[in-house]
Amino acid sequence: MPASVFSRRHGVRAAAVTALALPLVARTPHAAADSPSGDGPGLTTMTFNLRYASDTEPNSWARRRPAMRELLRRARPHLLGTQEGLYGQLRDIAHDLGPRHAWLGTGRAGGSKDEFMAVFYDTERLEPLEYDHFWLSDTPYVIGSNTWGGAVVRMVTWVRFLDRTTGRRFYALNTHLDHRSQHARERAAALITERLHGLDGALPRVVTGDFNVAAHGNPVHDAMLDGGALVDTWDTAERRGKQYATFHGYGPLVPDGDRIDWILTSPGVRTRHAVIDTFSLDGQFPSDHLPVRTVLEL
């Protein structure tokens, strides 16, 4: 979908903008029986650290892509916040999701360079009305800025959507916090919550991301919940699957392990179902993280 179809606030320089809709093959028409369903009024929402594409074996992108394709076709997300995806990898995922999905994002170094915080969405369900990016630094609108001592550049992509099924509008914000610096993570959480407060308070929020710290085990989690401004959908879900550490590094899964990948929402959003997806294909995991998926009612 061309960027001109909808508005863009605080316009990041044109050279850094990527707004892509990549039509390709049809979606698989089934979902896993024990997973949140893509059918009905509920909004199926997922956060997924994709693990950037590389040729390094035994978990190269070429080996992982079939498992990623099958997982996403089973999940059928309406809204998918991704982390670490590289441009070519995101094009592959768009192809594999099929013509109903499009995506928005820009590389954290600008344009198609480096990793993206790409947001995929089902175009038959969701219409983007406004979007923007900002960087997790003291200069959030300087592309590629990193002022808090983080190991790498970090950023946010956010979108204001219209849900065509319900007629509701809402904000989706997707991010990936630093993997080394606690200081950078805490500053990032403070900036994100500040920016959330600056959005239209009448609209629900959905925040997806890899926060690189355990839920309930780090001040970053408390900062993101911000005294009740957001809730953790894993805690509020009416039904949930078994908990696993969401980072497994291609090793054995860890029951009751740390959740470092979260879906947060405004308190008024109902979470009907939450699951940490352990899907693998012939022993191959799609990523070194497990995706978290919820069914929300805004």
Write structural notes for this entry:
Helix content is 18%, strand content 27%. It has five helices and 15 strands. A hairpin with a 5-residue loop joins strand 8 and strand 9. Helix 1 packs across helix 2 and helix 3 packs parallel to helix 4. The longest helix is centred in the middle third of the chain and has 16 residues. It is globular, with a radius of gyration of 17 Å. The N terminus is likely disordered.
- The oligomeric state is single chain
CATH homology group = Endonuclease/exonuclease/phosphatase
Terminus-to-terminus distance: 25 Å
- Which percent range fits the helix content? 10-25%
What is the number of strand segments? 15
Low-confidence stretches are 1-7, 10-35
Q: List SSEs in N-to-C order.
A: EEEHEHEEEEEHEHEHEEEE
CATH class: Alpha Beta
Radius of gyration: 17 Å
Largest sheet: 8 strands, mixed
**Overall pLDDT, averaged?**
89
* Fraction of residues in β-strands: 25-35%
CATH topology grouping: Deoxyribonuclease I, Chain A
Topology:
Blueprint lengths: L6 E2 L9 E3 L22 E7 L11 H15 L3 E5 L3 H11 L3 E5 L13 E4 L3 E10 L19 E9 L5 E8 L5 H16 L7 E6 L8 H7 L5 E2 H4 L2 E2 L20 E5 L4 E7 L15 E6 L1
Parallel strand pairs: 1-7, 3-4, 9-10, 12-14
Antiparallel strand pairs: 2-5, 3-15, 4-6, 5-6, 7-8, 8-9, 10-13, 11-13, 14-15
Helix pairs in contact: 1-2, 3-4
